[in-house]
């Protein structure tokens, strides 16, 4: 069963990698033609610098997600990382897609000012890590200081809780004390 699961993940990864390479390579080729042939925008540096994260993310996804086969060619050698998982893998795909969108906007606007939108990537990472740290503190009980909810001040909270057996015994005792007055 484990081998069948790994084969499904390997097939899915091959499909995902093929799609992502096709999309990013076509966008990069069109962008490179616009930058180098038409000199639109005039400066090449931002195009090169801001496409480095795209290439790094693709290389990492390729090395971790591409299935490796044995000498026979049909057996998988080792485990394959699932490229559909959440977390860092998902974040890398977001960087690839966002860089592609930035390249398209750069061509359409003819300006390197669109690269300022790239600030959204670290801002999103800071936002996610802030909430992750806050959730972790709450789960570990570290954040119980000022932000902890206040307990209601009533007498029931101060009394020790009774077990079911004690409650039944008290109820039976109360039953016997009742007097019927006619």
Written overview of the protein:
With 182 residues, the chain is an all-alpha fold. It has a domain at 2-114. It has six helices and no strands. It has helices spanning 2-37, 45-65, 88-109, 120-140, 155-158, 164-177. α1 runs parallel beside α3 and α2 packs antiparallel against α3. The protein is elongated. The N and C termini lie far apart (77 Å). 12% of the residues are buried. The mean pLDDT is 84. This is Snd2 protein. Residues 159-173 have a biased composition (Basic and acidic residues). It is a multi-pass membrane protein. It holds the Pfam family TMEM208_SND2. InterPro entries: SND2/TMEM208 (IPR008506).
Which labels suit this protein?
6 helices; 182 residues; transmembrane; membrane; 0% strand; mainly alpha; SND2/TMEM208; Snd2 protein; single chain
Q: Strand share of the residues? A: under 5%
Computed CA radius of gyration, to the nearest angstrom = 30 Å
Main beta-sheet strand count, sense and barrel state: none
- Overall pLDDT confidence: 84
Tell how many strands the DSSP assignment holds.
Answer: 0
Helix content range of the residues, please?
A: 55-70%
Approximate shape: elongated
Unreliable parts: none
Given the helix and strand composition, which structural class is it? mainly alpha
Give the SSE string.
Answer: HHHHHH
How far the N terminus sits from the C terminus, by CA atoms, comes to 77 Å
Tally of helical segments: 6
Secondary structure layout plus pairing:
Elements: H1 2-37, H2 45-65, H3 88-109, H4 120-140, H5 155-158, H6 164-177
Helix pairs in contact: 1-2, 1-3, 2-3
């Amino acid at each position: 069963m484990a081998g069948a699961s790994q084969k499904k993940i390997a097939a899915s990864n091959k499909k995902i990698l093929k799609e992502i390479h096709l999309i990013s390579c076509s966008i990069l080729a069109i962008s490179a033609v616009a930058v180098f042939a038409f000199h639109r925008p005039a400066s090449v540096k931002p195009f090169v610098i801001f496409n480095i994260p795209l290439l790094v993310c693709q290389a990492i996804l390729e090395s971790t997600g591409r299935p490796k086969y044995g000498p026979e060619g049909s057996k998988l050698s080792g485990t394959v990382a699932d490229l559909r998982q959440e977390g860092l893998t998902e974040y890398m795909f977001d960087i690839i897609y966002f860089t592609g969108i930035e390249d398209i906007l750069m061509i359409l606007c003819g300006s390197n000012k669109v690269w300022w939108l790239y600030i959204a990537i670290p801002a999103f990472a800071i936002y996610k890590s802030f909430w992750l740290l806050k959730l972790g503190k709450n789960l570990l009980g570290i954040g119980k200081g000022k932000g902890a909810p206040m307990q209601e001040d009533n007498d029931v909270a101060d009394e020790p809780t009774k077990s079911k057996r004690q409650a039944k015994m008290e109820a039976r005792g109360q039953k016997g004390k009742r007097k019927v007055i006619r």
